[in-house]
């Protein structure tokens, strides 16, 4: 029997409560609970004294369990009579009895110390004694009842000496023996366990300390958790110069999540960092608010902006508001990034080197100018293509921003072009030395009509660091190079750590639904191991939906970052119709790279274009069927796995507004013609057809191409259903019969921006359905769009 630790802890807690006057504070609520007559409480405390104060009765009640220790010892002695004196069981019972007796004696002494200390505080109230009063502090002796004089003291001086178990107030050499005894008692553990065993001082504790020798923390005060003599766990450091760090420590250094405030030396404001730390430096994801008003959100390494991040400079009312989002290396813009210069109304999308535009890139302006090509030393320098709002195009050499200098070709909106040498700034007059050409009507413009984007950054090179950081969170140094099991473990650790941080920070609390989702994502989905069936495919799809909706999940953070950079690129000045092709290719690049991540997490998932077989039919049915008939049966088609089918429903709804805006700008003229025809043709009444038309055609209320195609299919089925109710059952539709009816439905639906919808479906449609039923229906819708534009009414 080893009851010493728990009993000693209980006795110590009761003693602490007594010393701090807790039972006096407890008397009033106890009186309200037990009523005016304390007989019940007296019976519970097994006390026969009369007129005992209620607080003393409570003390007796809480110390009551310790009065039974002697009875426990006697019970063990009685049990010992059932065994031979020489047996092991008898010896264990004897040892247990001895421990209970020693424990009872020790607890009795501890109670006397607590009562003695309590009466001391009660006898000497005041501010000085209140400042010394602590729960674990016990009085050993004091000079009011034990004579002690101070040498060389004044005649009328009054000295008071108090010795506690952990402090000495105005002590002198004559008390050295008592002090040594108190220290020896504390170090040997005689005052703690009652067994006389030496107890090591606690390795972990909470304390406050001011550093004097540490160069990094000199004259700084730390308050918080310690481990082996170093700050470890949650704590706070305050420097004399006003710096404050509040957060977690590890081995004496800031490590984990923390909040750091640093006064500015030039401004009467503070720099403020909130984010992750590693080995005493800002490292990981964080937010830095500068005293100048700038705000950086992104990755840090060694106290520098490093990785993907966004820097907001100034405000809309300031002299130079701007936003940069992209890659940083050692505190400088390096790699791919987007810079929105709000003052000049320009947006740059391209490569950077040491805070300067360097390499290939694209610039669009609020006045409709578009440039793609080379940049050097932060200027347009080299080969590039420049287009104005009216489609005037220059392709050739540049020396400065918007400055032509060298050989090139200038093409007019009507197709006429100059070829030669050009000098001058665009919009301020150009000097041309060369030839003028006016193509014939039947000339093929050669290379004049090449698509834009040739001189821009390839889509697979954009936001490379965003995907690299996601791979690193999975434990991979490079894409696809790592262990699958380790990746799942990193996901579970990241989710658990994030949930703990949100729990400890009230301002970051998650909703109940998010907590449940987070808990479900923390488990490693072992059921996904093995060949992928349709059931497992649906399970993977549901997991991805939840993961992408949770920003704390690596895939969710990736999705959130991609949405932010996409909107940053193609919203505002970036809503330029000439960026449509690049915007579509960027989405396709997202799908391919995310699909690579998904196949790393689920290695048994077929590659792009692979098939998942449909579940086999019931074996019993096969047994009962005729063998010859079975051979004639055509196999059921399986599901074709594609990145667009699996990921586009998750990604596209988030990117739909800026993407569709680009489609609407690109198809603006065609849609205006189409809409004018729709309004005109809808003035033609056709009551007979409206009588049996019961379908609602809303392509524009869905996001993904597959959803839009599903709406088209339902429309065809509804038309067929209505027509078949009026015709014979064996009637067979032909396209000649169906097309006019479907054309009428499209007209009556009055779909705005149908040309944009058609182009979006065509660009992002899953290749595996292009030649199937959905593909034929889409072709019919496309034909309706062009037919309406050219329909003539008389």
Automatic annotation (TrEMBL):
Give the matching Gene3D superfamilies.
Histone H3 K4-specific methyltransferase SET7/9 N-terminal domain (2.20.110.10), VPS9 domain (1.20.1050.80)
Keyword Repeat among UniProt keywords: yes
Annotated region (Disordered) at 611-638
Q: Which SUPFAM superfamilies match?
A: Histone H3 K4-specific methyltransferase SET7/9 N-terminal domain, VPS9 domain
| GO MF | guanyl-nucleotide exchange factor activity; small GTPase binding
Q: What is one term from the GO cellular component aspect held by the record?
A: centrosome
Question: Quick check: keyword Membrane in the entry?
Answer: no
| Source organism per UniProt | Oncorhynchus tshawytscha
**A Pfam family hit:** VPS9
- Entry keywords, A to Z: Repeat
BP GO annotations: endosomal transport
Q: Where is the VPS9 domain?
A: 642-794
What is the recorded name of this protein? VPS9 domain-containing protein
